[in-house]
Amino acid sequence: MKKNSFIQIFRLRKVSYENKISLNYDKLDIDGLPTLNIDCEFKDNEKAMRIDMADSAAEMLEAGGFVDVKTYDNFVNPGNGIHEMGTARMGRDPKTSVLNKFNQIHAVPNVFVTDGACMTSSACQNPSLTYMALTARAASFAVDALKKGDL
After folding, report:
1. Alpha-carbon distance 42 to 50, whole Å?
2. How far is the CA of 63 from the CAs of 36, 52, 57, 137, in angstroms?
3. With contact defined as beta carbons under 8 Å apart, do 111 and 77 qualify?
4. Which of 51, 65, 82, 100 is most enclosed, with most CB atoms within 10 A?
5. C-alpha 36, offset from chain centre
């Protein structure tokens, strides 16, 4: 691995606040509900992360004894990945985030979002165990809130 590789990857992880989903009240679905406006694109940060992930993977393979390792980038647009994240950002401030620390929607307390939408960024590994942990924490909080009559 490159010297200070972790620090380089960590510096690449920035949030793209411009990426968002909003409701389109001018275009309704067959049930009369607003459709989605999706405004999302990979920025320089995401593009740099892809290059760094490929380079780091090649370095690990070569360190393991593999030879003639070649990387590639089969670039796809947002929406074609299986672990995309960040459309319902978690945070303390309802002005800058959708969810609180228990994955509860700030504006709708009886709705919890426990998939990758709450995570503002990701790395190259599978985040499924993190989703499971977030779901368990949210469910525990919801059960306690129901018992107290808060939900």
Report:
1. 10
2. 46, 16, 10, 39
3. no
4. 100
5. 18
Residue recorded with tokens 């978690």: 90
Other Cβ atoms less than 10 A from the Cβ of 84: the count is: 16
Cα 50 to Cα 2: distance, rounded to the nearest angstrom: 16
Please count the other Cβ atoms lying within 10 Å of the Cβ belonging to residue 111: 12
User: What is residue 36's predicted lDDT score, i.e. its pLDDT?
Assistant: 84
Residues found in the chain: 151
Q: For residue 18, give the nearest of 36, 35, 38, 34 by alpha carbon.
A: 38
Q: Tell me which residue has tokens 């969810």.
A: 99
pLDDT in tens, the chain (151 residues): 444 444 444 444 455 667 777 788 999 999 999 998 888 788 887 788 888 888 999 999 999 999 999 998 887 777 676 666 777 888 999 988 889 999 999 999 899 999 888 887 766 677 888 889 999 999 999 999 999 999 8
Q: Are 5 and 11 in contact (CB under 8 A)?
A: no
Q: Which pLDDT value is given to residue 85?
A: 74
Amino acid at 80: N
124 vs 126: CA distance, rounded Å: 7
